[in-house]
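Sorry to interrupt, but I need a hand with the structure work. It will help me judge whether the discrete encoding reads sensibly. Write everything out right here, beneath this request:
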Amino acid sequence: MAPSAHAESHLVHRIGWLRAAVLGANDGILSVASVIVGVAAASTGRGDILLAGGAALAAGAMSMAAGEYVSVSSQSDTEAADLAREKRELEVNPQAELDELAAIYVERGLDPDLAMKVAVQFTAKDALAAHARDELGLTETGEARPVEAAITSALTFSVGAAAPVIAALLAPEQMIIPTVSVATIFFLIILGALGARTGGAPLWKGALRVTFWGILAMAVTAGIGHLVGRAV
């Protein structure tokens, strides 16, 4: 009797873009909201507040894209260098690499004979892929994708940053700070919950951590803006 198929749905394949998306949206909401609250606390007019928010949105989106591209490109370069080094070692001393792979499987719980058989079979199919996965810890799921990370971060930052700017635009001038603050906390709760749900984590945990840091950031920038406004 043939064994029944056991279908499983894993979420680890989302790690690459999910990290960039959550980071971009969270940074967009939080940084631009903090700028707006800080500028508003300095008692400036709506025009200056919206100008500051728009400038923060544009600069932040480009900064996120550049930062993600550079950092993930560095990771990609390191991975490529390690793979090139491993490929040379496989060409120069294949037996030593085979023994090394078998030793890895022994450390994971296989007996030496079985470990060597597994290493031989994996090496026969794709030696470089076997060493990349089991020696270097490189997999397709965790592969660095600089362009994807940059675009995702820039877009999600812009979407997140637009929320507090719109809130400031629609709020009465004397109510900009409380309106933007409440809207930002609301958006952060939604973002944290969505990020947690997408990653398979508890909703309250994701919502709580982003909300805590959001309130702290806005409180600090509002205090600084108030002090600067009084001094000027």
User: Anything to note?
Assistant: The first helix runs from residue 15 to 41. Residues 14-231 form one domain.
